[in-house]
Amino acid sequence: MSTRKFIIGGQILRSLRQARTRPLPAYWIWGGAMLLVAGVVLAQQDFSRVEIKVTKVSGNVYMLEGSGGNIGACVGSDGILLVDDQFAPLAPKIKAALKQLSDKPIRYVVNTHFHGDHAGGNAEFSAESTIIAHENVRKRLQEGGTVGGSAVQPAAKEALPVITFNDRATVHINGEDVRAIHFPHGHTDGDSVIFFPQSNVLHMGDDFVTYGFPFVDTKSGGTVSGMIAGVEKALALAPADVKIIPGHGPLSTVADARKFVDMLKETRGLVADAVKQGKTPDQMKQDHLLAKYEQLGKGFIKTDAWIDVLCADVIQVKPE
Ligand SMILES: [Zn+2]
């Protein structure tokens, strides 16, 4: 690393550290509310109003939307395999919605990652279902920590995946070879995308979302570069007409995911160039460096926060 690069890196690092000493940014609070990882926040949610919407995607795969991450369901004569299970209080509603599709048992739940809005219902399903996930999902659920500034308690034993894998796993059910493929250091360090080759459906977990700039959980091993690599790999392995279930948002296509990853690459490229020119994150924000993507910064992750995440990725800051 040249001295100049080092100085620029140091400036950015200072600027990012100063940002952390300021009061908790609103987007983190919002993030906590959205992820619903802290019990306090959980208590504020009125799950009684949530309705589970079921959409047939293709073949034997359905998408269930309620509150939290999208659920994928493979339904057939062998039983049901779920991808993610939202929040614990929604489990009875999710089970009731699945009963409308089939009387067969829910035999497996595959977690795309450990966040509470995707794996929060594990304990409610584990009596009848085998929970499967990447080994870091089990580790992070077991240990607890913080996500988006909110404390996460260690999960109960019943919520832990009982089968873990470190690269990929396949579940053969309903004539489908359901493939869970680990992509390291994307949204977290335990992400898997789930591919249903016979039905031609891909569940991307939170490596692809449609709410604007994505949340990258850097404290849990997530990185923007890893997310870019993961989406690129997923798009390379899936057919061009695959139907994509995003972690959050409506059913999507390859073109939608392509647009998303192109945005990740372009915004990271703009920030990398600005870093090379010696600009600090504050200057990038003042310059409206990401003006082209202004609309995406109006959701969950604001543009300024996205610039900070990109800067940290470019100069490879390790979160404290
Ligand atoms: Zn997540």
Defining key terms:
11 helices; Metallo-beta-lactamase, Chain A; alpha/beta; five-stranded mixed beta sheet; 320 residues
Describe, in plain words, how this protein is organized in 3D.
This protein is of the alpha/beta class and 320 residues long. The chain has a single domain, classed as Metallo-beta-lactamase, Chain A, CATH 3.60.15. The chain has 11 helices and 14 strands. The strands form 3 sheets. Strands 1-2-3-4-5-6-9 form a 7-stranded mixed sheet. The chain is globular. The structure holds zinc ion (ZN). Residues 113, 115, 118, 187, 206 line the site of zinc ion.
Q: Main beta sheet, described?
A: 7 strands, mixed
The H-and-E topology, N to C, reads as HHHEEEEHEHHEHEEEEEEEHEHHH
> Would you identify the CATH architecture?
4-Layer Sandwich
Spell out the CATH superfamily.
Answer: Ribonuclease Z/Hydroxyacylglutathione hydrolase-like
Compounds present?
zinc ion
Number of strands: 14
- Global structural class: alpha/beta
Strand content of the residues, in percent? 15-25%
Q: Please state the CA-atom Rg, rounded to the nearest Å.
A: 20 Å
**CATH fold-type name:** Metallo-beta-lactamase, Chain A
**Percent in helix:** 25-40%
What global shape is seen?
Answer: globular
Spatial arrangement of strands, main beta sheet:
1-2-3-4-5-6-9
Distance between termini?
22 Å
**Number of individual domains:** 1
CATH class: Alpha Beta
Supply the number of helical segments: 11
Mean pLDDT: 89
Topology of this protein?
Blueprint: H1 3-21, H2 26-35, H3 39-44, E1 53-58, E2 61-65, E3 71-76, E4 79-83, H4 91-101, E5 106-110, H5 116-119, H6 122-125, E6 130-134, H7 135-143, E7 145-147, E8 150-152, E9 163-165, E10 168-173, E11 176-182, E12 192-196, E13 201-203, H8 224-237, E14 243-245, H9 254-276, H10 281-286, H11 303-314
Parallel strand pairs: 4-5, 5-6, 6-9, 13-14
Antiparallel strand pairs: 1-2, 2-3, 3-4, 7-8, 10-11, 11-12, 12-13
The structure holds zinc ion.
